[in-house]
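pinging the channel bc i need a second pair of eyes. not urgent but kinda urgent?? the chain im working w is below, pasted from the shared doc
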Amino acid sequence: MNKIAIILTLGSFLIFSACGNKYKLHLESPKSIQVSETLKISVKEKSGNPIDSVQYFINGILVENHEAIDIKDYKLGKQAVSATIYFNGEKKQLNNTIYFLGKSAPKVYSYEIINEFPHDKKAFTQGFVFHNGFFYESTGQLGSSSLRKVEIETGKIIQKIDLDRKYFGEGMTILNNKIYQLTWKKKLGFVYNLESFELEKTFNYKQSKEGWGLTHNMEKLIKTDGSERMWFLNPETLEEESFIETYTNKRKAENLNELEYVKGKIYANLWQKNSILIVEPSNGAIEGIVNLKGLQSKAGQDGDDNVLNGIAYDIENDRLFVTGKNWNKVFEIKLIEK
């Protein structure tokens, strides 16, 4: 696994004088909690001064029973917790941060190789899609980034355009007869005609940091930016409308890269790792970890740079394909739960 950590925040304090009394208010909440548990938050006054009333909020939404909050339906990750305190005609607010974690440890998977296909070893794979019997691929590196259509059985490139040398190609996906392709640090994406590869329009990233991986769930585009976040974009306006943060029952996972949507779950490569995370799109819970150790060497590569970075799925025939940066093979694999 990648190096992963949770930033924890201590309880917040407020100390001041009101009507001659020195109030010491403290918002008490856990640093992190699994969503299968019941959350309790409270305000304490350390000097015994009276409090008239308190209102509690999670992400700005009022919660009624602050001593037994059901959080099972919340998204995972960073949450803003606050309390508005009323006393002696005064009103003050305290703020905390809590991290919501998954309810259980991820399942662990290995793999079985079903088939092997040739792959261009000069292709620095950044995006990988199966569509209507062909592979579509976005490749990276400044000066050699491209978009291509590839014959599966032979690895032959049958259609290709090169990106301007200033762009580093990243993730791509196909939705409604359009190809969507990201670039890395230019905060710019491209939309092409599926048949002609003609550029139809461009779009900017407004909230996400960079362009890494891209897939879709038939309704929204799903994008990674190298952090723990997955962004959901409107495919027409290309606006980033929402996001999830990916967490196990213990910690977050960063450096999410190339993506594929498979049977209602998001499969995500980890940068510089030969592994895949299986993520629940409704809340960001990491439900599975796939160890693909061994494929890199079978594809003629080693080291941290030329690792796994391509996931494609054939919905009609239930086939899962993976490849990597400068790999000479594409593998059709079957996941095996340990």
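so The first helix runs from residue 295 to 298. and DSSP finds one helix and 30 strands in the chain. — does that match what u expected or am i reading it wrong
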